[in-house]
């Protein structure tokens, strides 16, 4: 490759590194041109797949400020540059590798952090961003519907609940407390004279009558 062509290839790769939120390095040894085309299709529209030269890729990575890939740049290399959901791309690579074991996922980067081939496989086991958002939206919708149902409950229903609660409280009140409330007061009314004061008054009246007779 002539020097101008090398410079152009490095610049193109550096741009791919800068614009990708994830990159996956693979070894494609043994894959046919038809299989490579199928692999590109399996990645979906948010990723591109390019066969690269290791030396030029190392230079491009350094120019883009990317590190951690040198150990994976050996043997026949091809890179998936992901500009969308990395989980979707990882699933495409995993599924293709299951059908075509000659494809080897060596490692990569996710938002600048290095990933091993095993970690990329685990990434593929996660749910995609669209699925997670759909589940979140469903949970929020269900919560809102529950809230609307609660606030829209008829007043009659609320009254029935309150009445049932009142009856429950009354049923649980001890019988002794009810009996104590119904029992008459033990104390005599304040305006009635005590029984033991009556004889004393009668004795005073008799003494006064005796004195008058004697006089």
UniProtKB/TrEMBL annotation:
<dbReference type="InterPro" id="IPR002363">
    <property type="entry name" value="Ribosomal_uL10_CS_bac"/>
</dbReference>
<dbReference type="GO" id="GO:0070180">
    <property type="term" value="F:large ribosomal subunit rRNA binding"/>
</dbReference>
<feature type="compositionally biased region" description="Low complexity">
    <location>
        <begin position="172"/>
        <end position="188"/>
    </location>
</feature>
<protein>
    <recommendedName>
        <fullName>Large ribosomal subunit protein uL10</fullName>
    </recommendedName>
</protein>
<keyword id="KW-0699">rRNA-binding</keyword>
<dbReference type="InterPro" id="IPR047865">
    <property type="entry name" value="Ribosomal_uL10_bac_type"/>
</dbReference>
<comment type="similarity">
    <text>Belongs to the universal ribosomal protein uL10 family.</text>
</comment>
<comment type="function">
    <text>Forms part of the ribosomal stalk, playing a central role in the interaction of the ribosome with GTP-bound translation factors.</text>
</comment>
<dbReference type="InterPro" id="IPR001790">
    <property type="entry name" value="Ribosomal_uL10"/>
</dbReference>
<dbReference type="InterPro" id="IPR022973">
    <property type="entry name" value="Ribosomal_uL10_bac"/>
</dbReference>
<dbReference type="GO" id="GO:0006412">
    <property type="term" value="P:translation"/>
</dbReference>
<dbReference type="GO" id="GO:0003735">
    <property type="term" value="F:structural constituent of ribosome"/>
</dbReference>
<feature type="region of interest" description="Disordered">
    <location>
        <begin position="172"/>
        <end position="215"/>
    </location>
</feature>
<dbReference type="GO" id="GO:0015934">
    <property type="term" value="C:large ribosomal subunit"/>
</dbReference>
<keyword id="KW-0689">Ribosomal protein</keyword>
<dbReference type="Pfam" id="PF00466">
    <property type="entry name" value="Ribosomal_L10"/>
</dbReference>
<keyword id="KW-0694">RNA-binding</keyword>
<comment type="subunit">
    <text>Part of the ribosomal stalk of the 50S ribosomal subunit. The N-terminus interacts with L11 and the large rRNA to form the base of the stalk. The C-terminus forms an elongated spine to which L12 dimers bind in a sequential fashion forming a multimeric L10(L12)X complex.</text>
</comment>
<feature type="compositionally biased region" description="Low complexity">
    <location>
        <begin position="196"/>
        <end position="215"/>
    </location>
</feature>
<keyword id="KW-0687">Ribonucleoprotein</keyword>
<dbReference type="InterPro" id="IPR043141">
    <property type="entry name" value="Ribosomal_uL10-like_sf"/>
</dbReference>
């Amino acid at each position: 490759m002539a020097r101008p062509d090398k410079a152009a290839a490095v610049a193109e790769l550096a741009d791919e590194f800068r614009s990708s939120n994830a990159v996956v390095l693979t070894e494609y040894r043994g894959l046919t041109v038809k299989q490579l085309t199928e692999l590109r299709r399996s990645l979906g529209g948010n990723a591109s797949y390019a066969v690269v030269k290791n030396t030029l890729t190392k230079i491009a990575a350094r120019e883009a400020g990317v590190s951690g890939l040198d150990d994976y740049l050996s043997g026949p290399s091809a890179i998936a540059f992901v500009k969308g959901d990395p989980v979707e791309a990882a699933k495409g690579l995993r599924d293709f590798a299951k059908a075509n074991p000659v494809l080897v996922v060596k490692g990569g980067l996710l938002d600048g952090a290095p990933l091993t081939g095993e970690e990329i496989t685990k990434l593929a086991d996660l749910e995609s961003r669209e699925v997670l958002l759909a589940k979140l939206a469903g949970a929020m919708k269900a919560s809102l519907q529950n809230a609307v149902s609660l606030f829209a409950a008829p007043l009659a229903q609320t009254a029935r609940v309150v009445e049932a609660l009142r009856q429950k409280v009354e049923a649980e009140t001890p019988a002794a407390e009810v009996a104590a409330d119904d029992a008459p007061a033990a104390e005599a009314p304040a305006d009635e004279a005590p029984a033991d004061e009556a004889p004393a008054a009668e004795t005073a009246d008799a003494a006064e009558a005796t004195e008058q007779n004697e006089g």
